[in-house]
């Protein structure tokens, strides 16, 4: 595997190069600047590039822009992007051009050498490697809020048992609480789901329907 590394942190850049070479991989070039990275890709035609999101001169989006440009001009190039923290706009921009041969990892993952190397090999082989923390935060930021997001963990537990058809006594036994506590949780659930008492609506059924619709939407 022929690799180009674009990372402006000298310690991380050289550390990555040493690690990869120790693994028998061919690091053909290292650089700290996005323009020199693109030149290295043209000159060495690597199989894989490891690129930092933020690079000189402004340390904003130069790295991600260079990664997108490199993938556009060299469609077969595998790119593993490293970021200090989750940056939704940059991840979305990168993924918009396809997820094959693409990775997006937080830099802290590099310290978990086996995981990092597995991700690198997966990307080089044509797969995708997205950091679990990146996935979790992207989903949390892009998923629209629902009334159920207002519920506490225990209230969701109560509602889940209600959806199973359990009565208050059974719920209390399952959760090791008193029936009075279950009643309080249910009243709170109704309030948070904006289910006011009316003659025409069974609030318990309406709450369960909210739960089932949300579960279906997440599938």
Automatic annotation (TrEMBL):
Q: Which residues carry this modification: 4-aspartylphosphate?
A: 52
| Keywords noted in UniProt | DNA-binding, Phosphoprotein, Transcription, Transcription regulation
Q: Which Gene3D superfamilies did the record assign?
A: 3.40.50.2300
Q: InterPro entries given for it?
A: CheY-like_superfamily (IPR011006), NreC/VraR/RcsB-like_REC (IPR058245), Sig_transdc_resp-reg_C-effctor (IPR016032), Sig_transdc_resp-reg_receiver (IPR001789), Tscrpt_reg_LuxR_C (IPR000792), WalR-like (IPR039420)
Q: Where is the HTH luxR-type domain?
A: 144-215
Is Transcription regulation one of the keywords?
yes
Pfam family, any one = Response_reg
Q: What is this protein called?
A: Response regulator
Q: Which organism is it from?
A: Streptomyces heilongjiangensis
């Amino acid at each position: 595997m022929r690799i180009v590394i674009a990372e402006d942190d000298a310690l991380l850049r050289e550390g990555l190069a040493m690690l990869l070479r120790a693994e028998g991989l061919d690091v053909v070039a290292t650089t700290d600047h996005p323009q020199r990275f693109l030149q290295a890709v043209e000159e060495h035609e690597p199989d894989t590039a490891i690129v930092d999101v933020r690079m000189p001169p402004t340390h904003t989006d130069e790295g991600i822009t260079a990664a997108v440009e490199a993938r556009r001009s060299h469609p077969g190039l595998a790119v593993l992007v490293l970021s200090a923290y989750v940056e939704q706009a940059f991840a979305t921009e990168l993924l918009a051009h396809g997820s094959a041969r693409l990775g997006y990892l937080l830099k802290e993952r590099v310290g978990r050498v086996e995981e990092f190397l597995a991700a690198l090999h997966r990307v080089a082989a044509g797969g995708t490697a997205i950091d679990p923390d990146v996935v979790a935060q992207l989903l949390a930021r892009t998923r629209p809020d629902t009334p159920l997001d207002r519920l506490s963990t225990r209230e969701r537990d109560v509602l889940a048992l209600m959806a199973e058809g359990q009565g208050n006594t059974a719920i209390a036994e399952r959760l090791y609480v008193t029936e009075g506590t279950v009643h309080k949780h249910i009243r709170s659930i109704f309030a948070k789901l904006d289910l006011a008492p009316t003659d025409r609506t069974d609030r318990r059924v309406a709450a369960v329907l909210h739960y089932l619709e949300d579960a279906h939407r997440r599938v």
